[in-house]
Structure formats: C-alpha cells, structure tokens
Design brief:
The protein has 214 residues and is mainly α. The protein contains eight helices and three strands. The radius of gyration is 23 Å and the shape is elongated.
Length: 214
C-alpha cells in the first residue's frame, strides 16, 4: 500500500475563476501552521499540481522546487505586497545580484558577498550608503521570510548575513559624472554656480546638491 502523505491538501476555485492547489504543511518550530498555494488553469491541473506537491514534500521535506530562483521569489513577493519606488529599487538589485541562484542553494556567504558588492556599486549607478544598504538587506530578508512562510524554504539565510564595513572617509567620496555635474550647473545661477561647481568636482552627493538649490 502506498504511504499516505502526513499533510493535508485540497483544490478550490476562487471568485476570479482560477483554480488553486492548497497544501497544509505540518506545524513548524514556531507552532504556526503554513499553507502553500499554487495556481492552475483547470481543476484537473490543480489536482495534478497538488499530487506533485505532496510527492515533493514527502521526498525532500520542502517545497522549494529545484528550478525556483531568487528572481521567482522576489517577483512573487512584489506581487503579493505591492511595489513602490523603494521596493522596485531593492528588487532590481536583488534580481541583478542573486536572481539566477536557486532558492534552496542560497548561502549566508552568498548574501554577504552580495551586500559587499552592492555597497561597492556593482549593481547600481553608484556605491550604496549604509542607510540604503540596510534597507536592501531588509528587503532580501523579507523576500526569503515570505518563502519560509509559504513553505518553500526551511530557513532564512539572509537573517544571518552581515552588513559590510563601509568607508565613510569624505576623501573617498565619488565625484559626480560629467552629465550629473552639467545638470546641476544648468540649474544653478549666481553664487550657487561656484559652490556647485567646486563641490560637484569633489564628490557632491545628489541629495546635497538638491539642498543647495533651495
């Protein structure tokens, strides 16, 4: 006799007409019960998906598909939570730096390297300051926490990652590009022109430059 799965599942049709395969997982260490949902086009497809989910969990103890990537997890998180400029900025960097990696292969070391590279400006127009780097890490933690919540991941390795040390020496600040400096000079007049010219050639940050215009 085939071994019966210890987890419960069902299929249902939502108000929008879409079919969903729903699998209830065993209680985790925190005592919470989790459910995993996967969409289907038809009832037959939902039944097949549910069967595959049960088989995957029985054999591996997880529902992190071998083909599921950080890009997939980030996209699902954005769709479920809604997006704004801050989330879109963080999502673009996460996808650029980690998107191709499989969800269940991500390590703490890879998260640390990602944050170091992001701080150095590898995935953006310029290096990222500490405040924005914290927000980037928080976003990555939230993405993986959502995967743990829905049962696709056993632990959140991003929670163990560490922010890199950032050199705050003013002499190391990156000067503006010619295009950035040109835009500031075009917007300036009078004494501000001299101030922006001098500071722009010596690492003026955009937020500081905007402050000079008021």
């Amino acid at each position: 006799m085939a071994r019966r799965s210890p987890i419960n599942g069902t299929v249902c049709q939502r108000d929008n007409g879409r079919w969903v395969a729903q699998l209830g997982l065993p209680r985790q260490g925190d005592g919470q019960r989790r459910r995993v949902y996967r969409r289907a086009r038809t009832r037959a497809e939902a039944v097949q998906i549910l069967r595959e989910m049960r088989q995957e969990f029985d054999s591996t103890g997880t529902l992190a598909s071998a083909s599921r990537t950080i890009r997939d997890a980030t996209t699902i998180f954005e769709e479920s939570k809604g997006s704004d400029d801050q989330k879109a900025w963080a999502a673009a960097i996460v996808i650029d730096g980690l998107g191709a990696l499989r969800l269940n292969n991500l390590s703490v070391g890879q998260c640390d390297r990602f944050l170091r590279d992001a701080a150095a400006g590898k995935y953006g127009y310029r290096p990222i300051g500490l405040a924005h780097l914290r927000k980037l890490r928080q976003f990555l933690v939230a993405v993986l926490r959502n995967e743990v919540r829905i049962g696709n991941l056993g632990r959140n390795v991003a929670e163990l990652s560490q922010l890199p040390a950032i050199d705050t020496n003013e002499s190391q600040r990156r000067a503006l590009t010619r295009a950035e400096l040109g835009a500031l000079l075009d917007a300036a007049h009078g004494s501000r022109l001299v101030i922006i010219d001098l500071m722009g050639r010596n690492g003026l940050r955009p937020t500081e430059a905007r402050g000079l215009l008021y």
